[in-house]
Design brief:
3 strands; 3-stranded antiparallel β-sheet; globular; Cytochrome p450-Terp, domain 2; 12 helices
């Protein structure tokens, strides 16, 4: 008969870590063998995947994480964290406030882009050419939304993070580190978009698309693309929240008080 102790242990059984008095293991590796020996990015991979990445895999993942750390206080996640930091809460609350803003519209495009690129790759694997697979998938996605996740940017005509990330992927494909199917799928989407928008403003890949290529090429499942972005952006959220705590403001709102209407109770005219 199973004891209550055994039942409780099984209830919380996990392959991620094992903790006993005097012992901490991450994926069966004693923590003392990891400290000072592997980097933080490798630990992320280890905990999520169960093994350690090759050096080039680790470098690709690190590049994606570095690229997504911050995009200024106009990003809702950063703005919310900065406002929260002035409201008498701790840094952990400010970080949580910012992270909780990362939903489908702000922070979810990487996951969605991995899903879209996977759809293209699946169609290609079933016999469609890359161009046809991209067009069919793009049409299906745009029946749900006019936006294609991972393409275009409301600030940048060409996202400055795109090219260096894709150059790294190009080299990784050439060296056999990754397969290149997801890169091909994303570049085909850019080509199809350019044809459809001939004469209009181009819609190149953005940070969400470029990092989606990396996460997909490295074998991360779509939901983890969002999770990894959250880890990355948390660094910027922390930095902005910490900076805000040193500026002496209380109850910071979305606009300076000097530009607020004199009487908030005034009703709009007309």
């Amino acid at each position: 008969m199973t004891s209550a102790h055994d039942e409780a242990a099984q209830w919380w059984a996990t392959a991620v870590s094992h903790i006993e008095p005097g012992s901490i293991e991450l994926r069966d590796r004693p923590i003392q063998q990891l400290i000072g020996e592997i980097g933080f990015v490798d630990v992320i991979w280890l905990l999520l995947r169960g093994d350690l990445p090759l050096p080039r895999q680790s470098a690709l993942l690190e590049a994606a994480l570095v690229a997504g750390v911050d995009h200024g206080p106009q990003a809702p996640s950063i703005a919310a964290a900065r406002m929260a930091a002035t409201c008498g809460v701790g840094l952990n609350n400010a970080i949580a406030t910012g992270v909780n803003m990362l939903g489908d519209a702000h922070g979810g495009a990487g996951q969605q882009c991995v899903e879209m690129l996977t759809d293209i790759r699946t169609l290609h694997g079933a016999g469609a050419g890359w161009d046809e697979a991209a067009r069919q998938t793009m049409d299906a996605w745009q029946r749900r939304s006019r936006y294609l996740p991972g393409f275009g940017h409301r600030f940048h005509p060409r996202d400055p993070r795109r090219d260096p990330l894709l150059r790294l992927v190009d080299r990784a494909v050439a060296d056999g580190v990754v397969g290149g199917d997801f890169l091909q799928a994303a570049q085909t989407v850019e080509t199809v978009l350019a044809r459809r928008r001939e004469g209009a403003r181009p819609v190149p890949m953005n940070i969400d698309g470029a990092t989606a290529v990396i996460y997909a090429e490295l074998g991360f499942q779509p939901p983890l693309a969002r999770g990894l972005f959250v880890l990355s952006r948390s660094v910027g959220v922390l930095a902005h929240a910490w900076e805000e705590t040193g500026q002496g403001r209380r109850n910071k709102g979305p606009l300076p008080r000097s530009v607020l209407p004199a009487r908030l109770t005034d009703k709009p005219q007309g």
